[in-house]
Amino acid sequence: MPHQATSSHEQDLNFAQSIVNANSAAAGELRRRYHGRLVGVLCSRGASATEAEDLVADLWSDCFAAPANRPTLLSKYQGRCALESWLLTVATHRLIDLKRRQSFRVEVPPSDRSSEDFFERQPQMESVPREESLLKLLRAAIQNAFAKRDSESVLMLKLVHLHQLTQREIARMWGWHESKVSRALEVARESIARDIMMELKRADPWLELRWEDFLELCAGSSDGLF
Question: How far is residue 104's CA from residue 217's CA, in Å, rounded to a whole number?
Answer without folding.
Answer: 25
